[in-house]
């Protein structure tokens, strides 16, 4: 039998160690109020606009990658800016394809009662400027 190296002797047994470490990290994230550290970070960092909207049921204006704007109430979100939105008004501009002279851009909008917005399409989130 080969002798154990110094490194192997210092290392604890791997069986179950990862699980207990993971559980300890989950327990460490809890505060006295029952909020997680992530919720605390959301209340102070750049995601605080979304947290404020969820808590107060206020509207936000979201600029998305297809150059559309969404005026909506945020029901839920995560650290990737994935969002569940309600009472969404989608606003965008279209220029009609006409062969005669200059085409006037037209503002279009539609209402969506509930939607999931994937976070990678979010460019900017603002508090409702008219509130």
TrEMBL record:
This is Small nuclear ribonucleoprotein Sm D2. GO terms for biological process: mRNA processing; RNA splicing. Belongs to the snRNP core protein family. One of its GO terms (molecular function) is RNA binding. Residues 1-13, 26-40 have a biased composition (Basic and acidic residues). Keywords: Cytoplasm, mRNA processing, mRNA splicing, Nucleus, Ribonucleoprotein. It is found in: Cytoplasm, Cytosol; Nucleus. Pfam families: LSM. Its main location: cytoplasm. Coiled coil: none annotated. Residues 47-131 form the Sm domain. The keyword Ribonucleoprotein applies. Residues 1-43 are annotated as: Disordered. InterPro entries: LSM_dom_sf, Sm, Sm_D2, Sm_dom_euk/arc. GO terms for cellular component: cytosol; small nuclear ribonucleoprotein complex. Gene3D superfamilies: 2.30.30.100.
